[in-house]
Amino acid sequence: MSILTQKTIRKPIHFDGVGLHTGKEVKMNIFPAEPNLGIVFKRIDLNNNNIVIPSVYNVSKASFCTTISNEFGVEVSTIEHLMGAMYILGIDNALIELTSQEVPIMDGSARDFVKLISETGLKASQAPIKLIKINKNVSINEGSKFIKIDKSNVSLDISFEIKYSNSLIGNQKNKINVYEDDLTDIYSSRTFCLFEDIDKLKKLGLAKGGSLNNAVVVKEGEVLNSEGLRNELEFVNHKILDCIGDIYLSGYKMIGSIECSQGGHSLTNQLLRELFLDKSNFSIFEVSGKNLPTTFVNKSQLKSIA
């Protein structure tokens, strides 16, 4: 299968689950889509104005999850894990139908999405893929937090660090090449929270569907989940998964280098908005030819979807 042409899923896929924040049961179907459609969400619980496009400028909320909305105020929330799976697997086009506002949280990571989509397989078109290449450094700073993006040759590198006063989480840092590294630990890493923050989230009307089945909960120096952690950097790796999903709201695969400290959905969205303010910051192009450098291929995923 050529990595240079746009792809969709081979056949429809169904997921059942619960919304992490709404607590509502949701059914989600992902359908194959034609080239150049992109990723499109459709709220089938609504009869009108129910199409919502994931884009940088359609992000309406970015606290605790990424929420997008259309001009009529119709929302789709917690899209970042699914969008991360789409990016990692190289899916350019798909129609996603939901029976509720929120994408199902599944196990709190993107593992279920990656597994079922990989098993279903992908279908390639003749349309060339489109890339966005970063030309200049752009950065956003909020006190001790920052995120910046700069040019790269043929890869998307993400360096991310988190700093927590909690003794178990502490300071974690990881750097990945999205197109070359094995991303199993990234897409398998779950969302997490501190035990003492659960009541705060509940008072905000959030985490109504949260449980130890879909989030890692840390109480002082202990992980409350019986299975423990999936990898030693699961906390920062989940932040990288979120970052990949939020980057895909640019609408393109990206060639660049991202560095972030203590950031999240809001900071990533601010960065992309700042990036797109000046057209000299980036270039968008179609890829022609039969081959790309091997660093553009996620080798681990190529085997599972070819």
Q: How would you portray this structure in words?
A:
It is a single chain. The chain is of the alpha+beta class and 306 residues long. The chain has helices at residues 80-89, 111-120, 184-187, 198-203, 234-247, 265-276, 299-305, and strands at 5-9, 13-18, 25-31, 39-43, 51-52, 59-61, 67-69, 75-77, 94-98, 122-128, 130-134, 138-142, 145-150, 156-163, 171-177, 192-194, 216-219, 222-223, 253-261, 282-286. The chain is built from 7 helices and 20 strands. Strands 11, 12, 13, 14, 15, 19 and 20 form a 7-stranded mixed beta sheet that branches. The protein has a 5-stranded mixed beta sheet with strand order 2-3-9-4-5. Strand 16 (192-194), helix 4 and strand 17 form a beta-alpha-beta unit. It is globular and about 55 Å long. The termini are close together.
In short:
By secondary structure, the chain is an alpha+beta fold.
Helix content: 10-25%
CATH topology of the largest domain: lpxc deacetylase, domain 1
Strand content bin: 25-35%
Largest sheet: 7 strands, mixed
What is the approximate shape? globular
The overall number of domains is 2
Uncertain runs are 290-306
The count of DSSP E runs of length 2 or more, i.e. the number of strands, is 20
Number of helices: 7
SSE order: EEEEEEEEHEHEEEEEEHEHEEHEHEH
Name the CATH homologous superfamily of the largest domain: lpxc deacetylase, domain 2
Structural class based on helices, strands and sheet pairing: alpha+beta
* Name of the level-1 CATH class of the largest domain: Alpha Beta
The overall pLDDT average reads 92
Gyration radius, rounded = 18 Å
N-to-C terminal Cα separation, in Å?
Answer: 6 Å
CATH architecture of the largest domain: 2-Layer Sandwich
